[in-house]
Amino acid sequence: MTDSASKPPFGPPLFNIVLLNPEIPNNTGNIGRTAAALGCRLHIVHPIGFDMDEKARRRAGLDYWHLVDCREHASWEAFLASERPARLWLFTARTEATYFSATFQRGDYLLFGKESSGVGPDVTEWVERTFGAGHAVSIPMPATDGVRSLNLATAVAIAAYEGLRQVSR
Question: At what angle do helices 152-167 and 25-38 cross, to 10 degrees?
Answer without folding.
Answer: 10
